[in-house]
Write a structure and sequence with these properties.
The protein is α/β, with parallel strands linked by helices. It has 14 helices and eight strands. It has helices at about 20-30, 50-55, 85-100, 100-110, 110-120, 120-135, 160-165, 165-170, 180-190, 205-220, 240-250, 255-265, 270-300, 315-330; strands at about 10-15, 40, 65, 80-85, 150-155, 195-200, 225-235, 305-310. It has an eight-stranded mixed beta sheet with strand order 3-4-2-5-1-6-7-8, sandwiched between helices. Helix 10 (about 205-220) links the parallel strand 6 and strand 7 (about 225-235). The radius of gyration is 24 Å and the shape is elongated.
Length: about 325
Amino acid sequence: MTDWPGVRLHVVTGKGGTGKSTVAAALALALASHGKNVLLCEVEGRQGIARMFDVDPLPYAERRIATGLSHHGGAPGNVYALHIDAEAALLEYLAMYYKLGRAGKALDRFGVVEFATTIAPGVRDVLLTGKVFEAVQRNSRNRGAMQYDAVVLDAPPTGRITQFLNVSEQVAGLAKMGPIKTQADTMMTLFRSPRTTVHLVTLLEEMPVQETADAIGELRSARLPVGGVVVNLVRPRDLSDVDLAAAREGRLEADRIEKDLAAAGVEVDEPLVAGLIAEAADHAERRTLEDSQREVVAALGVPTYELPRLAGGVDLGGLYELAGMLKEQGLG
């Protein structure tokens, strides 16, 4: 059973370098079970989804890219992807709500799109989040469009996530009334509802954990719903606490290491053993730092999930492996 049964929009954020895009993709695969169809969206213009799933660069159109995580009880659903850019979203908005059609495309040639998204940055976020909102709450204006059981948004980093989602506040000084203000206020009803949650991805390092804590505080101040914290790239826990302490304190027995290496058929010399002892000490020190940050994460008061560092890196098979772990832990 998932920890988030009523959620339709899963927003995934994290400090740069924490692997938030990987986690978002794995979450989409995990959610696309029990026959569910999931839309995975990106808004940062990096075509990260295409690279992760090894497909051609995505157009501004919803495209099926994968079958969801398999499930014993029945056929899995599908993962669709959408690369959202502000210009295409504005043209679609004009066509859908103002029936401009070709006239809307003509505006692009006159630079109206660039003006709207450059002079008024808040409008850009309204357009990007507006398309996500439309995908979650499909209506008759978008006839024949796919109805999704869940939408996963690979969102901007933690330092900007509250501003990005708090669109009503962004446009408050720009438009006191009118369609943009109405659109922003309508979206906020979804973003602040139990149907939305914001998951944060971190590493067991001081800066990402602190940024995660700060983002949780900012989201709560803006009355935006906080989901879980995904601790990513966790190191293996192969050594016992006793061996870790010995490695950290320089008490590992060189003779014992030499014998073990020889028994494994490795040619032993002094530099090799010294190098292994130094590596063990560094590993033990990092493990101590990780354990201290794990305590900080636990004190944040939100559900936590852990994903390991995959030795071979993250390919499509690795994404499915991570998806299975998220599902087992209750996030997907």
